Amino acid sequence: MPNAGVSPCPENTRVGTVTVLVLHPPLPADAGPLAAALDAARRELAARHLAGFRAAGATSGALVEEERAEPFGARLRRLAEAAGTPGLVVLGSGAMALARPADYRAFVAAAASDLAGALANNRYSADAVAVAGAAVLRDVPDLPADNALPRWLEEVAGYRVDDVGRRRHLGLDLDSPADVVLAGGALPAAAAESPFPARLDAIRSVIRDRRAELTVAGRTSSDTLVALERHAACRVRALIEERGLRAASRLAQGGGDSPARAATRPPTSLLGLLLDREGPGALGRLLIRLGDAAVVDTRVLLAHRLGADEEAWPPTEDRFASDLLLPERIGDPWLRSLTAGAVAAPIPILLGGHTLVGPGLRLLVERAR
Predict the structure, then answer these.
(1) Which residues are CB-neighbours of 356 under 8 A, at least 6 positions away?
(2) Which structural domains are found in the chain, ordered by start?
(3) Across 201-218, average pLDDT
(4) Which of 105, 136, 338, 368 is the most buried (most CB within 10 A)?
(5) What is the pTM of this model?
């Protein structure tokens, strides 16, 4: 493939029916040890994806490693044109961490179809999308991220978009070193002192306890609540906030991000409002009153405090240290206080992102059984 940022697979690289592009952001030169550990896990997963898609019949594939110097939509237009195949599968290197051979076959078959359409691992917030009739991507707008691509294909391009339905294991992404542990991997060597695994075990014990109550806060879904209702012995208190935080781009709905169409309400969290009043260190004290354990989507709290643009949030290394419950490794005072409050609480509290309160929590329920 002609792009300088594209590393082709060593096997079966001729242009054919379906091209697979695995997008991997380069590791910054100043990255900390937790970011480096996640980078290594994602590279390993990307290699597994490329091998899996080749075995499933993809005719070419590549690891695309380049700086995010342009919006996702502009990048996709360029990469799709360079691929030059009628079928395209595009995914992040951390996506679908639990993918199986049948999953790879489903995505390749969707991209190879004679009928224009698409398949996503989640049509409302995608991390992996197969597109048949990929020429349509020359018209994709400058979407800020991949999450909104299925919505644009369906609502603007008129494509039929399906998702993987009951294959809910495909929602588990590696967005943090804590997600690697959730998926069954090991703690990074640089975080050997993390209490995260022990807290996971404590959460499983609460899930199995008919007398206990679990609090879930953040971008959880109805699928996760159904799984908890069916399979968890404990009671569940759920506070669902800011679903679509990254996927709800007006560009995906047509009409552009004009002032007349743009959403005026900034990200807002009820739990965040309480922390505004009580201070971030009060997190544990507040959650004690709600249940015997909690899992909290801290990205919603950061968006509430600092806005949806992640560039304004604490550095990646700080967020990863918070996920692993290591407050002494966090430079940002607000996030350090929040994490310390969670660690000091007499109930087990897990902090993380969408994976934790969504597919990660469903996986916890399954393992608790």
Answers:
(1) 178, 179, 182, 218, 295, 297, 323, 350
(2) 6-170 (3.90.550.10), 175-368 (no CATH)
(3) 97
(4) 338
(5) 0.87
